Amino acid sequence: VLSAQSGGSGFTVIDPFTEGRKVVDRGELVSPPDADRVQVHAENGGVRSMRLLALDLSADLKSVRRFLVTAEPGGRGQWAAPAEVADYQLRVPRPLVQTGVYSMVRDARLSFLLAAVFVFPLTFLLTSFRWHELLKALDIRIGQSKAFILNMVGAFYNTFMPGSTGGDVIKAIYVARFTEHRTRAVVSVLVDRVIGLLALVILGGSMAVYYTLAHRGDPTTHSTPKVAMGCGAILVATVGGIVLLYFPTLRRITGLGWVLDHMPMQKQVQKTLETMVILARRPMLVAAAVGITFPVHMTVVLSAMLSGMAFGLPLAPMYYWVVVPVVVLVASIPISPQGAGVMEAFAIALTRTAGASVSEAVALTMSIRTVQILWNLTGGIWVLRGDYHAPTAAEQAELEIEEPSTPGADSASV
Fold first, then answer.
1. 295 and 122 in contact (C-beta within 8 Å)?
2. What CA–CA distance (Å, rounded) separates 237 from 240?
3. Most confidently modeled of 60-69, 88-97, 175-184?
4. 3-state helix, strand, coil in the chain (%, to 5)
5. Can you tell me the distance from the alpha carbon of 11 to that of 1, in angstroms, rounded to the nearest whole number?
6. Residue 38: left if φ>0, alpha if ψ -120 to 50, beta else—which one?
7. Could you report the per-residue pLDDT of 96-149, keeping only the tens digit for each?
8. What whole-number distance in Å separates Cα of residue 37 and Cα of residue 30?
9. What percentage of residues in the chain have a pLDDT greater than 90?
10. How far apart are the C-alpha atoms of 404 and 281, rounded to whole Å?
11. Contacts of 330 (CB under 8 A, 6+ apart)
12. What's the predicted TM-score (pTM) here?
């Protein structure tokens, strides 16, 4: 394997075994292949499967000028023109030189990194306000400052718990202590999270559709239709679930009503349905909560974009609006702390068609995760003071204690 460093119009190629150096012209270098084999037209009119060794790409990485192929494993390569290759489509264009994470961090533009860090706190202010408004709609009044503190405490524990939503459990337990409507308090956290995720799906899906239509024929659009369809499927499933929940006849026909009636902790189940009734009677508030969420995700995308610009990633500005929502969404799956590993897999899959290397995709996810963790840790201020700690089993059991019924609430009308 050769490592290369830019040197004017050419490159200095270093042999890792002998450490010998050789300056070569850019035209002498090739890009790694994006497929194992290609079909090459034979002289007899048929096609022949040949091993693809390398690609000679155009300067913009959008088309192939020549294919380096061989008929035998380890055999001498030969050049084939695009007209000689059948049914080939460039999907994963790779640059001549792929920079490592260390080099990107070392050479990063500090001004862009600082901007990426200091724009991020806006997300906590907006999400705290959104949750506070949901709590007010459920007759839970804890004050904006208390909502902000609990939001930050939940963010702090998100840093160490599986997924990026694990701290929601902590937040739910603590907010339940400030009201007799404990089930409503817990449901408010769940609804707040669902609203956030749905807005993320809408943003990512919409931008994927826009990018696909605006960049037809561009290799980077290979993955965007899949993103759009995936987001669309999630939205359809969500709407279907809401319709099923709110119409008793459908619940009865589908058997969901029977399942709900035979679930354990029936007191909490019925209280949850009552809470959903209350929210259903405030559609404008729920719509406003969704609207508030878009600036939250836009801030996250902007922060990631600034980080990508600092590292010199080969991504178009608009493409961040497709990649980042998906990467952040999968990080919410409670598999590993902060979605470690899951984020990287999706980032690599979505950015490689834009010419990004694995190192560059990792740098993007690393920047998203690091900026968030940096601000999540500020929630430790209240944890270290002793005001908030990880709840014990006994404290978690408090949520199961029966609470007073709500006058006038009718779960059957859900």
1. yes
2. 5
3. 60-69
4. 60, 10, 30
5. 15
6. beta
7. 666 666 677 777 889 999 999 999 999 999 999 999 988 888 888 888 999 999
8. 17
9. 16
10. 21
11. 339, 342, 343, 346
12. 0.71
